[in-house]
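Hi support team,

I've been running sequence recovery on a batch of backbones for a student project. Most finish fine, but this one hangs at about 90% for roughly twenty minutes before it completes. I'm not sure whether the input is malformed or the queue is just slow. I've pasted the C-alpha cells below so you can try to reproduce it. Let me know if you need the job ID as well.

Thanks,
M.K.
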C-alpha cells in the first residue's frame, strides 16, 4: 500500500492504481479506459504517469469541493 504520493511508481499500471485508490483491479481497468483519465499505452498496456495521476486526483478533489460548496 502507498502512504504518500512520493511512494508511487513513475508509471502506474492497473494494480498500482487499484492499490492507490483502494478500489478493485477491475475498477482500475475501467478507470484506465475512461475518457477523462490520463492513460497512455505502451503496446497494449494501459498506464498512467505518476505526475498525471496526481494532477487527475487534485482535479477530482476540486470537483468534489465545488459540488459540496454548491449544495450547502
Amino acid at each position: 500500500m502507498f502512504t504518500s504520493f512520493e511512494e508511487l511508481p513513475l508509471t502506474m499500471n492497473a494494480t498500482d492504481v487499484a492499490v492507490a485508490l483502494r478500489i478493485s483491479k477491475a475498477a482500475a481497468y475501467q478507470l484506465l479506459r475512461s475518457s477523462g483519465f490520463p492513460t497512455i499505452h505502451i503496446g497494449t498496456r494501459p498506464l498512467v504517469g505518476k505526475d498525471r495521476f496526481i494532477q487527475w486526483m487534485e482535479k477530482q478533489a476540486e470537483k468534489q469541493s465545488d459540488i459540496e460548496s454548491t449544495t450547502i
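--
Follow-up from support: It reproduced on our side and the slowdown came from queue contention, not your input. Strands lie at 11-12, 39-42, 45-49. No action needed from you.
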